[in-house]
Amino acid sequence: MPSISIIFGALLILLGVLGYAYVMSTPNPSATALIPAIFGIILVLLGVIAKSKENLRKHLMHAALVVALLGFLGTVSSFMKIASVFAGTAERPVAVIAQLVTAIICLCFIILGIKSFIDARKNRVE
SS3 sequence, 52-95? Predict the structure, then answer.
């Protein structure tokens, strides 16, 4: 699971950096495009520390899932806004798409994390 955290964190960092690079070329640049990168940095750090600290792995991966859950809850509203992008009425269509991608990445990480926890519980020796 720590490797998965690092991979998904890297995806969020990439999304944030690409979004920020795009926003910097617009008339109204905003640092909020880096928000996915912040979540990504946290996930990468938690994954790296979990790889090196076996005794803390369970707690760190739970923390990574909480971070992903917060990221998902903060961006889930983009599912409702995506129709405005296709209708051409969205004020910032790239921001809506970036939020949607962030929500999807976080949701996929949450699903994989829950599956990992279930599998670990099943495989635990009693």
Answer: HCHHHHHHHHHHHHHHHHHHHHHHCCHHHHHHHHHHCCCCCHHH
The model's pTM is: 0.86
Phi and psi, residue 89, nearest 5°: -105, 0
Say how far apart CA 92 and CA 103 lie, in whole Å.
Answer: 17
Task: Give the chain's radius of gyration (CA, Å).
Answer: 16
- Token code pair at residue 46: 């938690």
Place of tokens 């739970």: 62
Q: For 34-78, what is each residue's pLDDT tens digit?
A: 999 999 999 999 999 999 998 998 999 999 999 999 999 998 887
CA distance 91 to 20: 17
Which amino acid would we find at residue 115?
K
Q: Which amino acid is at 67?
A: V
Helix then strand then coil, % of the chain, to nearest 5: 85, 0, 15
d(CA 112, CA 61): 11
